[in-house]
Design brief:
six-stranded antiparallel β-sheet, 290 residues, 18 strands, eight-stranded antiparallel β-sheet
């Protein structure tokens, strides 16, 4: 603006015979139009960038949680006619699962499950069923399918099932269908994957280990040359909190093609809630929380 005003003043100071009044106005008009054009050419890319950023931000915010859980949380209860804990909706559906928890990317917890159904036996026994799961990001998987059998005890129907592994940790909604109609649904919390190294995998989830107790845990290994291995518990800064030894307690052949599998058992004490890692025979796991 200052530059334009200086130019306008210069034009006024020209001798009266140099330029006619109409010529001066024409020059000023063209200069003004050029200035406005430059502003527009600068503003348009800025507006475009702002628009693109706004769209990206919207996509990020909406994709982070694009499936709203609308069902009740699954509860742990005891079967009425035996001392067994199941998770589900009492009086309607229960899952007998090891330690009542599923772990992400693990088939072992879901390898042999008993599903119990309560309702009308005539509309359940001999009918087809399937179980579907969806997480808060909208990821959907089919966990199991088959045919329901008559009840073993007080339940009206049951089946021995095998669940597919949950691909990630977090909240998942389980929906149980009978003859393609929704029978019951509830949500569960899937624990993070078991801590692992190249050759060792814990078979106990850190979030299940009691605080302040020396707890016996088991790890699976694909190498078994040593009868005893050293295990170090490290905090998130790498400081050694505990040193212990695990002994080889079992050996078996894996049906999944991994060959010989070895079990090592030992005790670890997690004194408080925090972030940790394990160094197992020189190999380190990633960070995990308890």
């Amino acid at each position: 603006m200052e530059e334009y005003e200086k130019l306008q003043e210069s034009l006024k100071n020209l001798t009266k015979y140099s330029l006619k009044h109409e010529q001066k106005k024409k020059i000023l008009y063209e200069l003004r139009e050029e200035r406005i054009s430059r502003k527009k050419s600068f503003v348009m890319p800025v507006l475009s960038i702002i628009g693109i950023c706004s769209v990206l931000l919207f996509l990020i915010l909406t994709n982070g949680n694009d499936y709203e859980m609308t069902t009740q949380q699954g509860a742990t209860f005891t079967l009425p006619d035996r001392n067994q804990q199941v998770i589900g909706v009492e009086g309607k559906l229960g899952i007998l699962v090891f330690k009542e928890q599923f772990v992400a990317k693990d088939l072992r917890r879901g390898s042999k499950l008993m599903l119990y159904y309560w309702g009308d036996a005539n509309s359940l026994v001999g009918k087809s069923y399937y179980v579907e799961a969806v997480n808060t990001k909208g990821k959907k998987i089919k966990l199991s399918e088959g045919t329901l059998s008559s009840g073993l005890n007080s339940e009206d129907a049951h089946t021995l099932a095998r669940f597919e592994a949950f691909p990630s940790e977090g909240e998942w909604q389980l929906s149980f269908y009978v003859e393609d109609e929704l029978f019951e649904a509830f949500t569960i919390e899937v624990l993070p994957s078991f801590p692992k190294t190249e050759h060792f995998t814990l078979l106990d989830a850190p979030k299940e280990i009691p605080i302040g107790e020396s707890v016996e845990i088991t790890m699976l290994s694909t190498v078994g040359e040593k009868q005893k291995i050293k295990v170090k518990l490290l905090d998130k800064k790498g400081n050694v909190e505990e040193v212990t030894f695990f002994e080889q307690t079992a050996t078996f052949i894996d049906g999944g093609g991994l060959g010989m599998i070895y079990h090592y058992t030992g005790k670890i004490t997690l004194k408080e809630h925090g972030t940790w890692r394990l160094q197992i025979d020189g190999e380190e796991t990633g960070l995990f929380e308890n």
